[in-house]
Design brief:
mainly alpha, two-stranded antiparallel sheet
Length: about 180
């Protein structure tokens, strides 16, 4: 196995281990001040993806079922940082490590990264469990319930086993190639 493939397998395994923590940290950014509205929309859209019943890779797929969730959260963090508006330094400290993870993601997905980024941007207009991003950000009660659900996900999330086999990377690329809108 090449060194670059081993790097992706190690990196992605780490992202699966921290998915619950990453989601919880992002959920905290929806509470209080210090995050611009466009950034909040990116964050809420990425987090709402966790609850979509039909996502890019079904969560039950061995080894890779939650990697799309980990990828979406990182792209949402990157979009939040690079969008319009200000983000307080303490809030930026949560977003920056996830956004920086987009570099290996760009390398891995190649031309499909642009399609993933467009997909994540579109999540701002989507809904899951009957909640749109507008509902989450526009209603304090809905937002509190949503953040509670994110925390519940974080507490119950069990990282799947992720075998460091090249076939997992091939399956992963195939899912993104087939499922991302052209």
């Amino acid at each position: 196995m090449s060194e670059s493939l081993a790097k992706y397998l190690d990196t992605f395994a780490g992202w699966l281990r921290t998915l619950g923590e990453d989601a919880e940290k992002l959920g905290g950014l929806l509470e209080g001040d210090g995050v611009s509205q466009p950034a909040r929309e990116s964050i809420a859209g990425g987090l709402n993806y966790l609850f979509k019943s039909l996502d890019l890779i079904p969560d039950g797929i061995d080894d890779i079922g939650y990697l799309d969730d980990a990828f979406v959260l990182r792209v949402a963090a990157d979009l939040a940082i690079n969008g319009d508006g200000e983000i307080a330094p303490t809030r930026l400290a949560v977003l920056t490590p996830l956004a920086n993870d987009c570099d290996p993601l760009r390398e891995f997905l190649g031309k499909d990264y642009v399609r993933l980024e467009a997909y994540v941007k579109g999540l701002r207009k989507g809904a899951a469990r009957g909640r749109s991003v507008g509902d989450i950000l526009g209603d304090d009660g809905v937002r509190a319930d949503f953040v509670s659900d994110v925390r519940g996900f974080a507490k119950t999330y069990e990282p799947p086993g992720f075998s460091r086999e090249e076939k997992n990377l091939i399956k992963l690329k195939a899912f993104f190639d087939a499922k991302l809108p052209k």
